[in-house]
What we know:
Number of helices: 4
Strand content: 25-35%
Shape: elongated
Number of strands: 10
Radius of gyration: 21 Å
Structural class: alpha+beta
Amino acid sequence: MDMFKGMGIAFGALLLTACASAPKTEKITAANGSSVALYSGFISTDMNGNRYADVKLREVTPAHTAGGMGLNVLTSVLAGGLVANTFSKEGLKGNSIDSLPEPTKAYLTPKAKPVIAAWLQKNGNGYQYKNDLNIVAAQWLLVYQDLGADNSNYELRYTVKFYKKPEDANMFSAFIISECTPKPETAKLADWQANGYELVKKTTEKYMDSCVLELDNQLPRLLKH
């Protein structure tokens, strides 16, 4: 009896843990009854080239390369296997700018919600989707262009991904994935950093506005049923 009681307690604890760790979604519903659950957060390493998502602005300077601050953002062990630690400046850990949290969830996602709702109203025909639509931030990086230059320009890079399981998916089905990576803009580091990184904020908002448009273009593929 005690053994079965213990198993029941363990199973209950496991169930509660699973529920607590389940990603929180928000249902987007159109007037015609169509709906889809939307998750907004950060991409997992296995969907991001084995790199951790940038949760804050990451700043990589030539000093990080020369000093070997490396220690990069590649994960070293995944699924029991070693991952090749090939050098790239994009992969360096750099400096995390604590005052600048990654803005996708706060800026892009609220703009995406009415776009999704409008698409459902026009095309959903009352269908209620079984599988979640995901908006996940992947990269937010300020990185030097030229290692040998004394005053190199810096690129501001941003990537967000949209993905969803097909409605007829089984456990082996691949995700439908769309990536938005706007062409990086360049400026001197001092210009990016001026006035509390004002240029970074404004440029990133411009990037995200373009990615909302890209999401709208990709919805017929992502929300096919």
